[in-house]
Amino acid sequence: MMTVDDVREKLRKAVEAAGNEAAWARTHGVSRANVNMTLNGKREPGGRILEVLGLERVVQYRVKRR
Q1: Is the distance from CB of 45 to CB of 31 less than 8 angstroms?
Q2: How many CB atoms lie within 10 A of CB 57?
């Protein structure tokens, strides 16, 4: 499993490989603002970004520790 910080790091590396946020966003049909807000923690990684990165969101529950 990955944390949201792990996802942001994966996105950050993909953006660096593309050259910049605008290039990555344009290539993958995502707004540059969405990429920027995701990288800066102002938005959770959304559907298209997760799809491009080959990820999916999974919700987990566990027994509360006492």
Answers
A1: no
A2: 11
Provide the residue ranges of all domains of the chain, joining segments of one domain with +.
4-53
One-letter identity of residue 15: V
Nearest 5°: the CA angle 45, 50, 52 is 135
Mean per-residue pLDDT, 48-52: 98
Token code pair at residue 38: 């995701």
Question: Which residues contact residue 14 at a Cβ distance below 8 angstroms, ignoring those fewer than 6 apart?
Answer: 24, 52, 53
Q: Are 50 and 57 in contact (CB under 8 A)?
A: yes
For residue 8, give both structure tokens.
């942001």
What confidence tens digit (pLDDT) does each residue in 4-31 have?
999 999 999 999 999 999 999 999 999 9
- Give the C-alpha separation, 53 to 7, whole Å: 8
